Amino acid sequence: MSASTVPAPRPPLRVALAGIGVVGGGVVRLLEANRDLIARRAGRPVEIVAISARDRHRDRGIDLARYRWEDDMGALVAADDVDVVVEMIGGADGAALTLARQTLGAGKALVTANKAMIAHHGLDLARLAEEKDTPLKYEAAVAGGIPVIKAIREGASANEIARVYGILNGTCNYILTQMERNGASFAEALAAAQAEGYAEADPTFDVDGIDAAHKLSILAALCFGTKLDIDAVTADGIRNLTAADIREAEALGHRVRLIGMAERDSGENGGGLYQHVQPCLVPSDHPLAYVPGALNAVVAEGNFVGRLFFEGAGAGAGPTASAIVADIIDIARDEYGPAFAMPVDSLDQAPAADAGARIGKHYVRLIVEDRIGVLAEIAAAMRDAGVSIESLIQRGGDDEDSVIIVLVTHEGPANAIHAALGILAASDHVVGTPMHMPILAL
Amino acid sequence: MSASTVPAPRPPLRVALAGIGVVGGGVVRLLEANRDLIARRAGRPVEIVAISARDRHRDRGIDLARYRWEDDMGALVAADDVDVVVEMIGGADGAALTLARQTLGAGKALVTANKAMIAHHGLDLARLAEEKDTPLKYEAAVAGGIPVIKAIREGASANEIARVYGILNGTCNYILTQMERNGASFAEALAAAQAEGYAEADPTFDVDGIDAAHKLSILAALCFGTKLDIDAVTADGIRNLTAADIREAEALGHRVRLIGMAERDSGENGGGLYQHVQPCLVPSDHPLAYVPGALNAVVAEGNFVGRLFFEGAGAGAGPTASAIVADIIDIARDEYGPAFAMPVDSLDQAPAADAGARIGKHYVRLIVEDRIGVLAEIAAAMRDAGVSIESLIQRGGDDEDSVIIVLVTHEGPANAIHAALGILAASDHVVGTPMHMPILAL
Ligand SMILES: NC(=O)c1ccc[n+]([C@@H]2O[C@H](COP(=O)([O-])OP(=O)(O)OC[C@H]3O[C@@H](n4cnc5c(N)ncnc54)[C@H](OP(=O)(O)O)[C@@H]3O)[C@@H](O)[C@H]2O)c1
Ligand SMILES: NC(=O)c1ccc[n+]([C@@H]2O[C@H](COP(=O)([O-])OP(=O)(O)OC[C@H]3O[C@@H](n4cnc5c(N)ncnc54)[C@H](OP(=O)(O)O)[C@@H]3O)[C@@H](O)[C@H]2O)c1
CA–CA separation, A344 vs A340, rounded Å? Predict the structure, then answer.
């Protein structure tokens, strides 16, 4: 390059951090540790100019004295020397949402790790960002350190996506892997996850699939060009899984994973959007079966690219900070566009698809009293509900009087399974709540 | 958005295609099939305005009559109505390179799938692109449809990358998977790959690791911020692998994969860059062990994000077109920057690291005459070369007079293995060429 064409060095990108907890602390550490490298890659230095959290005096294990502290988050937005506000507070509403609106409203760039807020208010925020022509980025909100928002928004952008699915919650995957390895019950595995710091004291958000639902709704909007619709996502968690389910799945050549899946019905079926989080049986020749521990993984199936599979750490200070700083670097490079890949007004409004009408094979597990005629009763219920049985296994149960019955159905609608279990709910011989899960089709 | 802020619709991005073979045909099909979707995502239509290949009259199985044909590639560049030239001719030099230089020299955008050309001339082309302030994009050049250039350049941009490695050649992986499943010899599996269209009549580029070396050199430059240096990449292919090697690896709980790996030595060791393609033993708890058939996969290890793993189709018309059109959409969106993430002049010049000094465990397989004293001879050679043996297995060989000896070493430098095999080369009792492979460390 001749000297005359060397562009003037670009001024630093000035960043304010709101929330210095697990993620915020990680971002401070990352920006300090990889400072020079980031400046080279971003084409300009990235500087923290101000920080804020609730309690100024809390020991956060990092030296924050060099940064300007603001007790009032609003001061981060108002400051003349702030280009980007990074929201790492959490919660769909409240302080996080207020800050996000203020930031975009002031025409400043917003980076967030907050899946709950994006799932609930992403459209409004994206519209505000468009009006103000300022970036809104949220790579860290889905699958932590895996750059899956980018991979789908930009890497797979040439494809019509048939479906997107994956392991979106590391806590659940950690629990399931524990159950798999040790034959532990759900309760035991949850306790282990809590002891290891992989699960919160109140694990509801994770184990009931709510966190995964937030992430799924974001992926669906990006993949299908539809308006985010968190209310249309249904979620079943993993609380009802037993050690026996994990064992029986294994005997069938499968592993149990909590899968969030979004799929758009064909036009003939109304073009509705299916968005569901639930435990599934994953066949052992599918890469999701090999995702261990607290990792996340996402699959996107495109009409030209085929199946893409991405795996990595879905949470934690380092991986989440990696995603946040990648967003910051994109902003420093001026490489960004509409938050959901296209203007909000051009996103489709897709009706929710009828989940019960979805066709697939299912796993059904019942615990029944060990007496003559019970099997006939189950078979009759299945027949009457129109469920066709591919295979059935009966094994001794945990106590002498009960047996476990595991059946795999032929392809059929989920509704038929619900109907059959409805019939059996009236039976005196069925013990506890039956479990049923779809078997993931390749 | 208020009506007054609606931006004027952007004009179409006008694309010229050079080379209408496997990949070029795929790009035509993709741009036609997903036309509306691409316009929505790109924010403007993407239009093919001209095409070119060698033989205008060749039947390409697609209707090209609607597109302007140019016999002379140069006319694509010269045309006023062309914004982007897509090079899908192939070859490191010749027509492809001429076209690439003309395109960038004219200040037009270049998209290419040509790993050979990027590996050999990527730096010069990137410099030219910088001078002319025009995009140079090459997502399709590495790992086909997997958006791994983007994932590393942008998704992992906040991280110092410790090493990058993966399965970069689908032909080899197909052959290895065949050997694994059927116990086939290399020659049999190669013939099957040729029959299935996964290998060329002359498979040299693939099976000797040259194609993987091209891709590895590109990944290394991106990950480490170093100047592309294809001459520093060393490659061992898979020709010398036997059915017994695959079987013994399996018995040790491993799978054999052709791995391209790049790693930067620490400053203390001179900061050199190690870039090597070779068959490796991959432990069964590593995701690369589960990559089947012609798929590709790439692992990048970042200092904050940890291990990222990307898998998908590494070749073929559809996946390669997907990557090319993703590049085109980035250009349409004005979301692009320097080809190697930073200006060419700021890339480091890294010396080649001493591959022989690399520490690791190794697999060694020898076929020896079945007679007293041979084992002692081997053990002595290993001892004299400083190789420490972790385990050794002796089995009956393919004929009565020979036995197979498989040993796994403790951690040590590759040089010591070479020295030991050098000593044994002089032995009358060793039959054929011994095989040795590193065992991939997690
Ligand atoms: N942790 C992960 O692995 C992970 C992964 C992906 C995404 N995320 C998302 O990242 C966000 C932050 O998560 P985190 O794990 O870092 O949470 P955290 O450790 O609880 O940290 C939250 C931070 O926000 C501050 N804060 C909370 N409420 C506030 C309020 N009303 N006003 C001002 N500051 C307030 C806290 O201040 P004090 O420290 O002073 O109390 C704390 O610094 C959440 O949206 C989460 O979903 C987290
Ligand atoms: N195939 C894959 O799966 C794949 C995957 C990733 C990357 N790539 C890369 O993509 C590029 C194209 O590969 P391909 O498989 O599509 O090759 P291909 O099927 O052999 O097609 C090559 C095309 O280039 C034209 N061509 C060749 N030499 C030419 C010359 N001297 N002047 C003008 N046109 C010329 C040919 O014209 P005619 O048709 O008239 O002969 C043909 O249309 C290569 O760089 C390859 O490495 C391929």
Answer: 7
Q: Round the average pLDDT of chain B to a whole number and report it.
A: 95
Q: Between β-strands A295-302 and A13-18, what pairing exists: parallel, antiparallel or unpaired?
A: unpaired
Query: For residue range B81-94, what is the model confidence (pLDDT) as tens digits?
Result: 999 999 999 999 99
Residue type, A155: G
Quote the pTM value.
0.96
Domains of chain A: 8-141 (3.40.50.720), 148-315+335-356 (3.30.360.10), 358-438 (3.30.70.260)
Q: How far apart are CA B103 and CA B111, in angstroms?
A: 10
* Residue ID of nearest Cα to ligand 1 atom 20: A21
Residue B279 one-letter amino acid = P
Interchain CB distance below 8 Å, A313 and B321:
no
| Beta-carbon separation of B309 and A307 below 8 A | no
Closest CA to A305 of A96, A429, A158, A126: A158
Between helices A115-132 and A94-105, what is the axis angle to 10°? 20
Phi, psi of A328 (to 5 degrees): -60, -40
| A3 pLDDT more than 60 | no
CA torsion through residues B213, B219, B222, B223, sign: negative
Give the β-pairing of B295-302 and B161-167. antiparallel
Query: According to the annotation, is B400 in a ligand binding site?
Result: no
CB A331 within 8 A of CB A13: yes
Contact B313 A305 (CB under 8 A): yes
Q: Are B302 and B309 in contact (CB under 8 A)?
A: no
- Ligand 2 in contact with B25 (CB < 6 A)? no
Q: Is B162 exposed, middle or buried (0-12, 13-18, 19+ CB in 10 A)?
A: middle
* E strand or H helix at A161: strand A161-167
B185 alpha carbon to ligand 1 midpoint, in Å? Answer: 56
- Residue A399's pLDDT is 79
Asked if the Cβ–Cβ distance from B43 to A1 is below 8 Å, we say: no
**What's residue A1's pLDDT?**
38
- Distance CA(B271)–CA(B264), nearest Å, equals 6
Q: How far apart are the CA of A22 and the centre of ligand 1, in A? A: 7
- A405-420: pLDDT as tens digits: 999 999 999 999 999 9
Label residue B6 by pLDDT band (50, 70, 90).
Answer: low
- Strands (E) located in A373-440: 389-396, 402-409, 412-413, 430-438
* A218 ligand 1 Cβ < 6 A: no
Question: Taking CB atoms and an 8 Å cutoff, what residues of chain B touch A324?
Answer: 158
Query: Which residues does chain A have within 8 Å of residue B40's beta carbon, measured at their own beta carbons?
Result: 225, 342, 346
Number of Cβ within a 10 Å radius of residue A198: 22
Average pLDDT of the residues in A217-228 = 97
pLDDT on residue B265: 85
- Among candidates A171, A170, A167, A141, which has minimal Cα distance to A153? A141
CA B103 to chain A, closest CA, distance in angstroms equals: 18
Strands (E), B114-160: 136-137
The residue contributing the CA closest to ligand 1 atom 15 is A22
Q: Is B260 among the annotated ligand-binding positions? A: no
Q: Which ligand is nearest to the Cα of residue A86, counting in written order?
A: 1
User: Using 50, 70 and 90 to split pLDDT, how confident is the model at B3?
Assistant: very low
Q: Name the nearest CA neighbour of B355 among B272, B239, B296.
A: B272
| Alpha-carbon distance values, B33 to A243, B27, B144 (Å) | 47, 10, 19
Q: Write the residue in B131, B145, B160 that is nearest to A34 by C-beta.
A: B160
A405 phi and psi angles, rounded to 5 deg? -120, 125
CB A329 within 8 A of CB A205: no
Which regions of B94-186 does DSSP assign to beta strands (E)? 109-112, 136-137, 161-167
